[in-house]
Design brief:
The complex is a heterodimer of chains A (167) and B (277). Chain A is α+β, with helices and mostly antiparallel strands and 167 residues long. Chain A is built from seven helices and four strands. Chain B has one domain. The chains are: A alpha+beta (167), B alpha/beta (277).
């Protein structure tokens, strides 16, 4: 990522960071589901920091277990705080990646090196789709760990979805 | 002791080597007629005797299905008792019959009376309007309701769809003889409006050993869909990626696990030898 872009992201995060510890769960959920990369990253971190005790408040604010190919980020957080995601009916070794419009296939490859996944052979990445592409976990990686790391550290990822399987 | 140990280990190693090699050969062996392409691993978790599995669903900004992938076990056209049945079933999942797509999932409701009156707990239905009087298909409980329930006969105690689903293409058990029909089409037409737009389906062979005979069956399944919704000039394009994957038999898995375990034992024994010396 160019240094200028990184500076913008870090700046955005630091602008909002001071407010998050005092924010309500509903406010955090709204920010997590929003389009501001810095705000959604910081809000997601704060939701995870508060831990599973906020699950009832999250539910009251509209979060639910993640489903479909387009789950809001807050639903993914909800599922991870529940101890999931409940991957019944989905594979445990791959997932869908929703990224911002300017993200390239090379960016996704470099994210994979950092977080523990790789592109699925024969699968192209198109940021305008939901998801942009499906990726496969590297050996030894666990789905919940990789999803949580992405949502708390990678500003270019909007949300993720399970790779649902129909038979 | 030391001498016996050094003689016995090469023998053990040879036996283990043969076991591992034979297991590996069994895993990757392909029929003689299908040697053109290398086998590919299943992306959709095919196994456990399943006849096919579909995954990697994507949608566009309007929520319309854009692509999905189906994995078939070898050899799709000859080992399957009715490959067209299976192909139509999986293609229908691919283009919309799944909770993966929000426009479908939004119509899935709990079947009225579920958990009592002979209707199983967890039963779901597809409703055009989210209410009991909009139900046009009763769905099973499994996987969030993505198959027609074959027990829904159109008679009490089921909601009065008037449709016996026992032989529906989207029911999960019977894989011979069923074909897409107007009831199946009504569900996806309601969810996605395919009747208004039509749908253009591109079939892409992404690897494995699918041959021309297999691809003819895929294209026949596409023709069945286009029989309900003909492709028009500006129809949304859907890409159906298909692959024939290598699925090891249970016996092969057991042999591989035993071989791996024995290799581990051998390595542990070998590691101890220098200490004994």
């Amino acid at each position: 990522m160019p240094l200028a872009a990184l500076a913008v992201v870090v700046g955005a995060m630091s602008t909002h960071a001071a407010d998050w510890p005092r924010a309500s769960v509903a406010t955090l959920l709204q920010a997590a589901n929003g389009g501001d990369p810095g705000a959604r990253l910081a809000a997601t971190r704060e939701l995870f920091r508060r831990g599973p005790t906020i699950l009832p408040q999250l539910a009251r604010a509209g979060a639910k277990p993640m489903t479909t190919v387009s789950p809001p980020r807050g639903d993914v957080v909800y599922s991870l705080l529940q101890g999931g995601p409940d991957a019944a009916g989905a594979t445990q070794v791959s997932f869908g990646l929703h990224v911002d419009a300017q993200v390239t296939a090379a960016d996704i490859a470099s994210m994979g090196s950092a977080y523990g996944f790789r592109a699925i052979q024969g699968s192209a990445c198109r940021p305008e789709l939901a998801p942009a592409c499906y990726v496969q976990l590297l050996p030894g990686k666990r789905l919940p760990d990789v999803l949580r790391a992405l949502l708390t550290h990678e500003p270019r990822v909007a949300t993720v979805n399970l790779n649902i399987v129909e038979r | 002791m030391q001498r016996r140990g050094t003689v016995a280990q090469p023998r053990l190693g040879l036996a283990l080597g043969i076991a591992c090699a034979s297991a590996t050969l069994a895993l990757f062996a392909t029929p003689a007629h299908a040697q053109e392409n290398p086998p590919v691993a299943s992306v959709c978790g095919l196994g456990g005797g399943a006849t096919a599995s579909t995954c990697m669903f994507t949608a566009n900004a309007q929520g319309l299905p854009v692509s999905a992938r189906t994995d078939w076990p070898e050899d799709f056209d000859t080992a399957n008792p009715d490959p067209l049945n299976t192909a139509e079933h999986e293609l229908f999942h691919a283009i919309g019959f799944t909770v993966g797509y929000a426009l479908f999932a939004a119509h899935v409701i709990a079947t009225p009376g579920a958990g009592a009156n002979g209707i199983p707990a967890g039963s779901r239905s597809y409703s055009t309007n989210g209410a009991a009087n909009g139900i046009i298909m009763v769905l099973g409980a499994a996987a969030g309701g993505t198959h027609a329930d074959p027990a829904a006969t159109g008679a009490a105690p089921w909601p009065a769809t008037g449709y016996n689903q026992n032989n529906d293409i989207m029911q999960p058990n019977q894989v011979v003889g069923n074909r897409l029909n107007a009831n199946d089409a009504a569900v996806l037409n309601n969810a996605f409006g395919w009747g208004r737009t039509g749908i253009r389906i591109n079939v892409v062979n992404v690897g494995g050993t699918l041959d021309a005979a297999d691809m003819r069956i895929m294209n026949n399944a596409v023709a069945a869909v286009n029989g309900f919704w003909p492709a028009q000039q500006n129809s949304p394009v859907f890409t159906w990626s298909v692959a024939e994957v290598s699925v090891p038999e249970p016996g092969t898995w057991i042999m591989m696990l035993v071989g791996t375990g024995l290799t581990g034992v051998m390595l542990r024994r070998r590691a101890r030898v220098p200490a004994m010396v």
